[in-house]
Amino acid sequence: MQELERGDSGIRSFASVQSALVMYPIFAYGSDAQKEEWLPKLARGEKIGCFGLTEPDFGSNPAGMITRARETADGYILNGAKMWITNGSIADVAVVWAKLGDVVHGFLVEKGSKGFSAPEMKGKHSLRASVTSELVFDNVMIPISNRLPGGDGLRLPLSCLSQARYGIAWGAIGAAMACYDAALSYAKSRIQFDKPIAAFQITQEKLVHMVTEITKAQLLCVQLGRLKDAGKVRFQQISMAKRNNVFHALAIARESRSILGANGILDEYPVMRHAANLESVMTYEGTHEMHTLIVGEDITGIPAFT
User: Fold this and answer.
1) How many Cα atoms are found within 13 Å in the side-chain-facing hemisphere of 234?
2) Prediction pTM value
């Protein structure tokens, strides 16, 4: 994929989609004033947001975060750092999770705040359509009005992750469908040994496997959506969907590349781009292994990690 300029509409569009993930904590835990200030602008794409939970040394273990907020007469002083933050360098507002004492709280950190910087992470081979950054807080002053008042504790950011993981489970299906469509179209038009390669049994087996896994993933997400609408969805079910759908989407991308042969690495086709991105999504918003252990604990009643 061609390197995109920062002013390109593709960057802005992708960033607006990611901002939707920032809207949930403001909607669920923000004050009326915070909702009125940010939600309409984020929804219209007039403002960009980012979500700061992961730290340089704490990804799968967010409870170990070392970013701290200290209360003062005028608000809070924030110190620490977040890592692998989508939109960080271009965001107008960051939802940042930090410990106040020993309890996790959410804070809105606005662009331009003194002591707040967001250096962009360069050299990515994956997720190149998005801006990924570090967030650095050096005695950043946060007004009292910028703390999310709707609760505290680690359950708040984890509930936000459930929303994001639900979306990823659907998004992985879209990537898989794009790869499958490209492979099917290519197989029907690519002639080898005087017939299209779609006529060969091994190619058909690959295509059947792809469309079967896509259909199963769709059904999993449809049922998950029904449970979500009914208010009955559990985070373990979301973990199952994210884990399953990303795993099979990546396998489908790789299988599609094999059908396209050498042409599969060209940017004329979407397959290699999706494969590279899905490699990241395997660890994005919770690693494949952590989701495995979440589901494993749910079915056995035995936690494999503390």
Assistant:
1) 7
2) 0.88
